[in-house]
Specification:
Layout lengths: L2 H14 L19 E3 L2 E7 L40 E4 L16 E8 L7 E7 L5 E6 L2 E7 L5 E4 L9 E8 L24 E7 L2 E9 L6 E9 L6 E6 L4 E6 L5 E7 L13 E6 L4 E6 L4 E4 L2 E4 L2 E2 L2 E7 L1 E2 L4 E2 L3 H14 L3 E5 L5 H10 L2 E5 L11 H18 L5 E8 L5 H17 L4 E6 L2 E4 L2 E4 L10 E4 L16 E4 L5 E5 L18 H15 L5 E4 L7 E2 L12 E2 L12 H15 L3
Parallel strand pairs: 21-24, 21-33, 24-25, 25-26, 26-27, 27-30, 29-31, 30-32, 32-33
Antiparallel strand pairs: 1-10, 2-3, 2-4, 4-9, 5-8, 5-10, 6-7, 6-9, 11-12, 12-15, 13-14, 13-16, 16-17, 18-19, 19-20, 22-23, 28-29, 34-35
Bound molecules: alpha-D-glucopyranuronic acid.
Length: about 600
């Protein structure tokens, strides 16, 4: 392993290895359980393909960039931009689906929001972003707050000393340009939606407040709650009470000089499951601060090639989903978007969804908690990223940390996935092993997986033996028999060899069909072809002994810049079971009846 890469990895593990997965981040969790003010709505924007607002003509960073929100004071003053008379866009929202001129736009757009905020004495103020694709440089009142890379995870900055009571201007430079060393890298099969794609929120807290916590069932236990709480502030050493009123739980701990305390107590709670997605009101409080949350308690583990939820074997009847609102044709972000997508998944008969290929917005995860849908959550380590690049590794690890920090109190999330369809190599294995270790140090309770590939031992034997499997709890495998690999009936003669005695999830299979295009089942792009493919797939899958779940590709057609075929794709991947207009294709009903059969079989 290259020295600097090894060093980066060990530093990261030490950082992460503080007691019970607490990672030294400044991310505030459970924003909706705090006192907040939304900055959503119309923001002024400046489209800046040449980054003129950031660099001068010598391509040197400017002192007087657009983040200054400057106004001419005298008639002779030369200011060549003006937010207040500029175009507006909605936040949250991607820019591509809000303005036809920006559909294919990849570059920088500056966002500006003005606001007044009367802060109470002795309190602290933070600005929180649910997500901004891809790189965000954030300024308040002309001062740089910070920088964030990664389009699908939250970040926040403290603005206690930068904010004024009146006429604040928050300026964000968002750049979604793709880079070879980034995560994801240059090539993906989804639309590179740019912008402030998720909510922006002001959070007011007392001087010392509850920054982060974990309250979940201890690994392997059905009645022992374990976790920790982390305070942020000078009064670090104080009592914190954890209450679950409905279960008559009242437990008190004392934080140490770093504001940290472990939590451990016994309670026989009603367990969360798809059939009964029980969520408890949980409150954490100190003398001056309290945070409330809705948390489900369930155990998830593997036993040989079985997956056990609350100690019972479970089959994951799933579907893959992109974070795209099919009807609006843009990035999904709202509760309504989530309710529609998860509602369609439930209509299919799903108890599980694979949220591909990046962390989806918190509304999706919270609703999965409520609706009883188990979740595979993933970071965009997708196809062939730069495995030997230290910054790329740190970037991927940071995204992983932010995803886990945001969602580790969510019962619905049962699987963390560290990668999708990555080519086997020593550098790749070491990179992903590093991520797996990082995830385990942050969350010892959930299962680790990755969507890997298979190969042929001979013409009819498919083999799942990716070396990464030894580090995973659950083996994910994508296969496209009948679409990229032969015709649908090829599945009939295939057998599967899985090298490890671990649960297998077929994390992708499928084929494209344009809704309403009909013809013989041998004709590609027709609904009949897709239906036939699903029928052959299901017959093959039923024969795989260690199969414990499937998440076919994909719930709905979605935009992709890699799909130009006129009158068929038109820049949409058409592997959805539901069209981009919400119409169910014939294959939708094939999968639905397969899941009904499984339910009858108690799966
Ligand atoms: C890949 C990949 C998906 C992609 C799909 C397809 O397996 O993981 O992101 O969209 O195949 O080709 O349709």
């Amino acid at each position: 392993m290259k020295p600097n890469f090894a060093l980066a990895l060990s530093v990261l593990l030490v950082l992460a290895a503080t007691a019970f997965g607490q990672q030294q981040t400044d991310l505030l969790t459970n924003v909706r359980g705090r006192s907040v003010v939304s900055l959503n709505g119309n923001w002024q924007i400046i489209i800046d393909p040449y980054e003129t607002g950031y660099y001068d003509y010598r391509y040197q960073p400017r002192e007087d960039g657009y983040f200054k929100n400057a106004k001419p004071k005298n008639p002779g003053d030369l200011i060549e931009y003006d937010f207040d008379s500029a175009q507006q866009l909605n936040v949250p929202g991607d820019w591509n689906s809000q303005d036809d001129r920006l559909l294919f736009y990849e570059g920088t757009i500056w966002y500006k929001k003005s606001f007044d905020y009367q802060k109470k004495a002795g309190t602290r103020l933070f600005v929180y972003f649910g997500g901004a694709n891809y790189v965000a440089d954030v300024y308040l009142n002309g001062q740089k707050l910070g920088h964030h890379e990664g389009g699908f995870t939250p970040f926040n900055f403290e603005i206690t000393n930068t904010a004024k009571n009146k006429d604040n201007f928050l300026v964000v430079k968002v750049d979604n340009k793709r880079r070879r060393d980034a995560v994801p890298t240059l090539n993906t099969d989804w639309w590179n939606y740019g912008g402030l794609t998720r909510s922006v929120t002001l959070i007011e807290e007392p001087e010392t407040f509850i920054q982060d916590y974990v309250i979940q069932l201890k690994k392997g236990s059905l009645d022992e709650i374990a976790g920790w709480v982390k305070l942020n502030g000078t009064a670090a050493n104080q009592a914190v009470t954890i209450e679950i009123p409905e279960a008559k739980v009242k437990n008190s701990v004392r934080t140490d000089a770093n504001g940290y305390a472990a939590i451990s107590f016994k309670s026989r709670l009603q367990l969360w499951s798809p059939a009964d997605p029980k969520l408890y009101q949980v409150a954490l409080s100190t003398g001056s601060n309290s945070v409330s949350d809705r948390i489900g308690f369930r155990s998830i583990e593997t036993k040989g090639n079985d997956i056990l939820l609350n100690g019972k074997s479970i089959f994951l009847r799933g579907i893959s989903i992109h974070e795209e609102s099919p009807l609006r044709g843009g990035r999904a972000f709202s509760e309504d978007d989530a309710r529609m997508l998860l509602g369609w998944a439930k209509e299919l008969g799903c108890n599980f969804v694979r949220l591909a290929h990046y962390p989806h917005n918190e509304n999706m995860i919270r609703l999965a908690d409520e609706m009883g849908v188990m979740v595979w959550a993933e970071i965009p380590v997708y196809w062939t990223i730069l495995w030997d690049n230290t910054e790329t590794f740190e970037n991927a690890s940071k995204q992983l940390g932010e995803m886990i920090t945001r969602d580790r109190n969510r019962a619905s999330v049962i699987l963390w996935s560290v990668a999708n369809e990555t080519p086997v190599s020593d550098a790749r294995n070491k990179f992903l092993k590093g991520l797996i270790d990082h995830a385990r140090s942050l969350d010892p309770t959930r299962l680790l997986t990755a969507a890997n590939e298979r190969h042929y031992a001979d013409a009819t034997t498919q083999v799942v033996d990716d070396p990464l499997g030894q580090y995973l709890d659950v083996l994910g495998c994508n296969e496209y028999v009948g679409w990229y690999d032969g015709l649908p009936e090829k599945a009939d003669g295939l057998s599967w060899k899985v090298s490890l005695n671990k649960p297998l999830i077929i994390s992708e299979f499928g084929g494209d069909a344009l809704f309403g295009l009909h013809g013989p089942k041998s004709q590609r792009w027709t609904e009949e072809y897709q239906k036939d493919l699903y029928e052959h797939q299901i017959a093959m899958l039923r024969k795989i002994p260690s199969l414990r779940g499937v998440s076919p590709w994909i719930l709905t057609d979605f935009r992709s810049p890699r799909r130009p075929l006129p009158h068929i794709q038109d820049f949409y991947n058409r592997k959805g079971l539901i069209s981009s207009a919400g119409e169910r294709k014939q294959a939708f009903y094939v999968l639905q009846s397969f899941y009904r059969e499984l339910m009858k079989e108690g799966k």
